[in-house]
Specification:
The protein is of the alpha/beta class and 213 residues long. It has a single domain, classed as Glutaconate Coenzyme A-transferase. Helices cover 15% and strands 25% of the residues. It contains four helices and 13 strands. The strands form two sheets. The protein has a ten-stranded mixed β-sheet with strand order 4-3-2-1-5-8-10-11-12-13. Helix 4 links the parallel strand 12 and strand 13. The chain is globular. The mean pLDDT is 94.
Length: 213
């Protein structure tokens, strides 16, 4: 069976090394902070000026003033802190973020990412902080469903939507598996969800998949 969204987040969380500073994009990626045990030191950063985000608050323990960049309610890990918005983006643009995990509409086999607009009529006014994160983080992973609701592939030869970042995606986590972007080769299958075959993943992708060497 394909991974559900909790399993996708847990799979990505398991791959984050101890001690990394990680920014989680709006939407599906924010669930990753719920899947890292408190005994593991992973420092989650949010561009609105929070360093040391913990899991989502338990019901009845929400603090309406404590939110991430997507306005989702969060908690603070022991030792966590707040900073000015400008300092937060200095961390991002200065190359101090070990990993950023973003959602995606499309990822191209050369590592391009489109994740903020699907047409000229979208309500999003601009690409926002995702552009800075895509260019400034040391590594960029994408967490997304493998296809759209109507079955259109999201792993493609070239993105058809406006780009967020050019050639910076390293890895993609979908409900079908884990895929690495290897420069000059394209998408390499690192892992597949239980029961999902290579042929099934290929049939739901618009770019060629490669088996690991």
């Amino acid at each position: 069976m394909p991974f559900n969204r909790d399993q996708m987040a847990a799979r990505a969380a398991d791959d984050i090394p101890e001690g990394w500073v990680v920014n989680l994009g709006v939407g599906m990626p924010t669930n990753i902070s719920n899947k890292v045990p408190l005994e593991r030191e992973v420092i989650f950063q949010s561009e609105n000026g929070v360093l040391g985000i913990g899991p989502a608050p338990a019901p009845g323990h929400e603090n309406p003033w404590l939110i991430n960049a997507g306005k989702g309610l969060i908690t603070l890990r022991p030792g966590g802190s707040y900073c000015h918005h400008a300092d937060s983006f200095a961390m991002i643009r200065g190359g101090h973020i070990d990993l950023c995990v973003l959602g995606g509409f499309e990822v191209a086999e050369n590592g391009d990412l489109a994740n903020w607009a699907t047409s000229e009529n979208d309500t999003a006014p601009a690409v926002g902080g995702a552009m800075d994160l895509g260019a400034g983080a040391k590594r960029l992973w994408v967490l997304m469903d493998h296809t759209t609701k109507d079955g259109r592939p999201k792993l493609v030869e070239a993105c058809g939507y406006p780009l967020t970042a050019l050639g910076t995606v390293n890895r993609i986590y979908t409900n079908l598996g884990v895929f690495e972007v290897q420069r000059g080769l394209g998408f390499v299958v690192l892992d597949l969800a239980p029961g999902v075959t290579f042929e099934e993943a290929q049939s739901k992708s618009a770019a060629k998949l490669h088996r690991p060497s």
